[in-house]
Amino acid sequence: MASYSNGDNAECSVVTKSPMKKLSVSPTAQEGRQNVTVRLCLSVLGAVLGSFQFGYNTGVINAPESSIKSFMNQTEWERSGESMTEEKGTNLFALIVAIFAAGGCLGGLAAGWWADFFGRKVGLLTNTTFGIVAAVLMYFSRLAGAYEMIIVGRFLVGINCGLYTGLTPLYLSEIASSDIRGALGVLHQLGVVLGILLSQVLGFQELLGNTSSWEVLMGQSFLATLC
Predict the structure, then answer these.
(1) Which of 3, 144, 198, 214 has its CA 20 to 30 A from that of 59?
(2) Rounded to whole angstroms, how far apart are CA atoms 130 and 195?
(3) DSSP designation for 209
(4) Structural contact between residues 60 and 199, judged by C-beta atoms closer than 8 angstroms
(5) By CB neighbour count within 10 A (0-12 exposed, 13-18 middle, 19+ buried), where does 210 fall?
(6) Which positions, given as ranges, span the membrane (predicted)?
(7) What radius of gyration, in Å, describes the C-alpha atoms of the chain?
(8) Going along the chain, which residue ranges are E strands?
(9) CA-CA distance, 105 to 100, in Å (whole number)?
């Protein structure tokens, strides 16, 4: 504000306005924004397929229960000439179901060490080995006439899925910038429920949940692992 005097000794004042400063976005805010690129989408898809694997193998065992029990009974007959007792069949199938959770517990506990030792990306890639071996064992169990292969396969795929439950959210949170981290974070759970949904749909008797195709249903996780 400037002041001056006129001839009548009256003092006048003039208010001068300073030019307005333009607001600028800080470099850190600009760095926080990330464009959704094709490479990012492919990375996210590859990680979420691990979550899909977890959901699929959680629900896939429900539909072919009677077919697997029939296969175990037939295998027992071919080996010993005697039918498997109902109690033994129930216990073996319970083992097939429960050993997936045991493997998942082991894989979940090892996920932090696995991520630090191999790194997030390489850790996801090396984890596919468990899924591939497990799918091959379960698919060829009928051809080999060995229901023990299903038990071992379920244990290995449990380790595989347990590792995914730790690696996938960690990887998604680290490849995403702050403005899309929340959106990518929910994709892990979305992959899980989609896997459960598909396993239930394919488990219909008209599709793969029947006596002639149950091993295909169990080995389908091979495709998600390869992708």
Answers:
(1) 144
(2) 18
(3) S
(4) yes
(5) middle
(6) 92-115, 122-140, 146-172, 184-204
(7) 30
(8) 2-5, 11-14
(9) 9
Among residues 186, 67, 198, 76, the alpha carbon closest in space to that of 138 is found at: 67
Short-list 51, 57, 89, CA closest to 73: 89
Q: What is the pTM of this model?
A: 0.81
CA dist 192 and 184 (Å) reads 14
Q: State how far Cα 56 lies from the chain centre.
A: 10
Report the alpha-carbon distance of residue 58 to residue 76 in Å, rounded: 27
The tokens of 20 are what?
Answer: 């307005």
Tokens of 54: 């977890």
**Residues 158, 133: Cα–Cα separation, whole Å:** 12
Q: Which amino acid is at 71?
A: F
**Tally of CA atoms within 13 A in the half-sphere of 226 that contains its CB:** 7
d(Cα 41, Cα 46) in Å, to the nearest integer?
A: 9
Question: Residue 124: how many CA atoms within 13 Å on its side-chain side?
Answer: 25
Task: State the residue for tokens 């030019």.
Answer: 19
Structure tokens at 111: 């996920």
Domain 37-226 class in CATH: mainly alpha
Structure tokens given for 131? 């899924």
